[in-house]
Every structure is written in C-alpha cells, then in structure tokens.
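User: Sequence in, structure out. Go.
Assistant: Echoing your sequence, followed by the structure tokens.
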Amino acid sequence: MRILIADDEVVGGMVLNRFLSPYASCDVVENGLQAVEAFENAWNGGTAYDAVFLDIVMPRMDGIEALEAIRTFEETVTTSIEARAKIVMVTAYDNYKRTLSAFDLGCDAYIIKPAEPERIKEMMAELGLISQSAY
C-alpha cells in the first residue's frame, strides 16, 4: 500500500508517517500543490496512492483545494469509484462547515490533531485500508 501525506508542519507530517509506515510506504509533502503533483505523477507512473492524508490549512494550496483537484483528476482517469484513493482530511481545528465541505467534495474520513494511533488504525480499518485483524 502507498500513502501520501501532505502537512506543512514538519512534526505533523513526521507523526503521521510514523503512525502509518508500519502499514504502507509513505511519501510526505509540504503543501496541497505538491500533493496534487505527487498524486498525478504516481497515478501516471503506475504507482497510484491508495490513501491521501491532507492537512486542511497549508500554504500555496490548502487541503480542501487539493482534495477537489485530486478528485477532479481521478474523474478524468477512471470511472470506477473503487479505484479512487481514500482521502482523509486532517486538521487541528474542529470546524463543522469545513468538515461538511470536505465530505461534499469527496473525502472519506476526517481526523482532528493530535490523532491517537489507535484512532488512526480504527479509521484505516473502517476504510478497508487495513484488515480488522491488524486493528
């Protein structure tokens, strides 16, 4: 499994990488623009990401904009919903409107920092990224 993590805070990206690396090969980028570029390059290179963790507040392109760009790209390259990456929004802010807009744009899950490793494992199992026995 491959996971892309986009977080402008170095510590945030490192923490998610540490939590997720036992389950997948992880790449970490610093903003939404880099996330979209990495996602498209991986897809075009035949090594698509299975999941993307997007921090919402990032420079250059925020997580909501990156989510929309990734889903738009996926619509141009596949008609299969099953082929889409699981996208998890990550934020330090519990903002109801942003949560709803992220789900409207196609995110699969939402976690609030600091996320506990057990909650991340539970969410990954719910999304079918890891087996229930791994959780």
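User: And one key feature?
Assistant: The mean pLDDT is 90.
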